[in-house]
Structures are given as C-alpha cells and as structure tokens.
Amino acid sequence: MLDIKFIRENTDLIIQNCQDRRTKVDIHGLLKLDDQRKTHQQLLDSKRSELKSSSKSKPTPEKIAQLKQLSQSIKELEEQERQILEKFYDQLSKVPNLTHKDSPIGEEADFNVLYKNMEPKKFDFTPKDHLELFESKGLVDFKSGSKVAGHKSYFAKNELVHLNNALIQYGISVLAKNSITDIYETPDFALKSMLQNAGFNPRGDSDEIYNIEGEELSLIGTSEITMLGYYANEVVDLSKGPKIFAAISKCFRKEGGSYGRTSKGLYRVHQFSKLEIFAICKPEDSEQIHEKIKNIELQIVDGLEIPYQLIDIASADLGGAAYRKYDIEAYMIMKGDEQNQGDYGEITSTSNCLDYQARRANIKYVDANGKKQFAHTLNGTAIVTSRLPIALAENHQDQDGNIHIPKALQEFTKFKQI
RNA sequence: GGAGAGAUGGCAGAGUGGUCGAAUGCGACGGUCUUGAAAACCGUUAGGCUGGCAACGGUCUCCAGGGUUCGAAUCCCUGUCUCUCCGCCA
Fold first, then answer.
1. ipTM here
2. CATH top-level class for A4-92?
3. Counting CB atoms within 10 angstroms of each CB, which of A252, A303, A335, A418 has the fewest?
4. pLDDT for A339-389, tens place per residue?
5. Exposure string (b/e) for A288-318, b if CB count within 10 Å is 16 or more?
6. What is the pTM of this model?
7. Among the CATH numbers 3.30.70.1050, 2.60.120.10, 3.30.930.10, 3.40.640.10, which is that of A108-410?
8. To 10 degrees, the CA torsion angle through A139, A143, A147, A152?
9. Does the CB of A46 sit below 7 A from strand B?
10. Would the Cβ of A59 be found within 7 angstroms of any atom in strand B?
C-alpha cells in the first residue's frame, strides 16, 4: 500500500495514476475517511486520557459511577474506530503503486517490446504444439491427472520429470554465476495474513487462490508470498548490501474460468514449480537491482536458445504492487492461429514494487541517518516448470517429433534429445 | 492426537489488579578520564498513530483476538507459536 500522507500531498498524481492503471478508487473519499479517522482518534484519545488519569488510584464510590459511564462511552468509540479503520484500510489497499515514467501508459496490449533475441525458426514442416509432442511420447497425462485431482491436473512422466529437474538445476547454476547463492525452499502454504501482505486477497470468492478449509491458510501462488513473509515485521540489515535470494516452491493457482486454445496443455495449470528471485534493498538500489534481475532472466532464456521478446508491461497490466514490470515472452507454437504459425507467451516476469509491499508487510532497514525506513522489494521468475518445457518442446522439435535439449541444459540431464 | 510449562524492550530477566512503556543486568551509543585504548564513572538507548511552527504533548502497543473491571503486562476465554513428556509417523 501507499503512504496516506503521500496520497494527500499528491492527490492529482494519484488520481491520474489510478486512471492509468484502470483502477477505480475514490481518492477523495479515502482522504475524507482519513480525516474522519484522525478526528475520531483525537476524541478517543482525550476520553482515554480522562479515564487514565482517574484510574491511577482507587476512586471514591460516587466517582466510580461516573467512570463506568466514561468507560462505556470509550467502548462505543472504539467500536466506531474499528469500523472506520476497516473501511480506511480497505480503500487504501486498493490504491495501486506509482508507475515508472518509462512504463507505457495504456491497456494490456500496449506493452513496449524492448528486445528480441532472434527471429522464430521457420519450420519446413508443420510444427506440433507441446501437448501433441509430449502426449505422443507419453510424457504428460492429463486424463489421469483429471481423474485424480480434477480439471487441468496432470502427471508429468519420465523424461519430462528429468527435464523439469534439469531446468531447476540449470537455473540455480545461472543464479550462482550471478552471485545469488542464498537459496530457500519455502512452505507451499501460508497464513492468509501473509497473502495480504503480498497484495493478494484470499478472502471472499477468489478466482486465484486455494484456501484450506477450516484453517487460516492458503496455498501459495508464488514464493514471493513466503519470502515477503519471512521478512515481515523485521528490520533487515542492508549495511552489507542488498539481500537477493533464490526461492523454490510449488505454486498453486485456481485459474478460475480460463479455458480455450491459449491456455491449452501446460500453459495454464493449477500447480507448477518455480525458482524465484527475491530481493530486499534500499530505495536507491531498487532500479539497478530490477535491471540485474531482468538480465539474469535474459541469460537463463538465452541459454535455452528459445526465441523471445522482452516487454515493458503497460500501466493497465501492472497489477497493484508493481511500479515497473518486465516480462519475457517466449515464442510458442500453441499460441499461433490461422494467420501465424506461433506467437509469444509469458515465461518470466520481474517486478519492482518499491516500498509498496514493504509498507504493508512492515519490512524496514536502517538508513544512513540511523532512521528506520521501509525497504524496497523486488521479485522475478528464474525458472518455471510447465511453461519452459512448452517453449523448449515447441521450438526445438524436429520433423520426427523429437525434442532437442539445448547445450546449456545437457550438463544437467543425460538426455540430448527426448 | 493427549498431558504439562511458557511467550515481557536489541538480548537476558523481574514484575499476579492502580502512580508500569515497564526494575535490574548485558549489549549498543554519547560523554568524562586517557597520548590512544581498556577499566571506572555519568548519561542516552522501542515503535505506530496523532496534536503543535516549535518547545513539548496525547494515545496505543508486555504473542494475537475477545472478555471481566472504575482501572489489566497481571484475572478469564479462544487462537498461534515454543519447550518437556506420552502416542503416532517419512
């Protein structure tokens, strides 16, 4: 969330930003709630003060009757305060983060293409999509997956399992080359309050999040949640530089209502594994670290020899927390239509959230003046199973339906092709 | 899963109904002393919200949420976590 004082002092900017982000929030209403909150607090404080000063020693019986009344009115005021605060924070948390000056303003499709590594291969045969390729080799089984775990679940088998493991190991090795050696395996579920810290809403009818019945727990959609939680309410020591981690977890997503060609096969599934990059840093370092994470992602995908485009996400598609977001989209046959052989589909995403998440999760560091300040947080995908195998299979297939394993991956698996 | 014990400031650890945001010790920081350091001594040492130009105030926070009471770190209930014992288990 943003600082209410900042919103007050930059109201026009915030209102414009909400428009750019296609987010409907009543900023003037929010400021009124803030006024209400303050006035109410002053009233409550003065009542409390009165009661407190009378409670320092035993009062006379006549006095007690008065104090009872006072105490009662405080309870009523406290109840009102709860309601005001609930409304206030509900509204405040809807205000999206600021937007980087270079992020394109516009709808989801208005992203900027920053870089393309190569032209997609022109196949001199009709290329298959990953589902055909994997199913023909018996490497993926959606039928059994659905039987066991419902729609869109699957069993990965044999070479695909080895490929997934090799990808993770490959990702870890690239991170290590970039001096990211701290690696955490996180819980795959977390308290709902932790999801909210990260800007997810596990309450109500979520289309995205699996809640665990009878528990205050949800399955995580990304280890960003657990990593943020790890540092929630902590003062992080950044005196020796930023904290940059790798985190491994399963990711669970409901993906409510997504059917059809563009989410075919492994593209949109309920469960996958992810090697994530997560960073906490001082405000002055976050842009540079964002570039660094982006470059690591490029290295990873370069090594896989997959055609891709790097895009700067447009304002309407940034979500609530990101200040700037880069996605890498790989060329995929499955994304094609009658006109095009294939098209680009997201495989990684890295966000700079500034102090938006840290403010809610209360993650601080000590600045040069010894003052505690909110840190900046960033995250980015290193490796994601399911989507990377799509890109590998569809771009490295031959006429016989074999999939060639790129050289960089061969170090981590015995297969040269599958 | 059962039985018991516990959760207090950066850390350790007092505090079982009123003047307690909280003794004491350690650590940290500042100062005196010293050529410098150590020791000793003196002092400072939570965060949020909020009022005020400021000086300086108000209030909240002793795991969390409820409750009892004129008044709660202290009493009651629920939950979370930690430890010990038993059970079960990879």
1. 0.83
2. mainly alpha
3. A303
4. 778 899 999 999 999 999 999 888 888 887 777 889 999 999 999 999 999
5. ebbebbbebbbbbbebbbbbbbbbbbbbbbb
6. 0.91
7. 3.30.930.10
8. 90
9. yes
10. yes
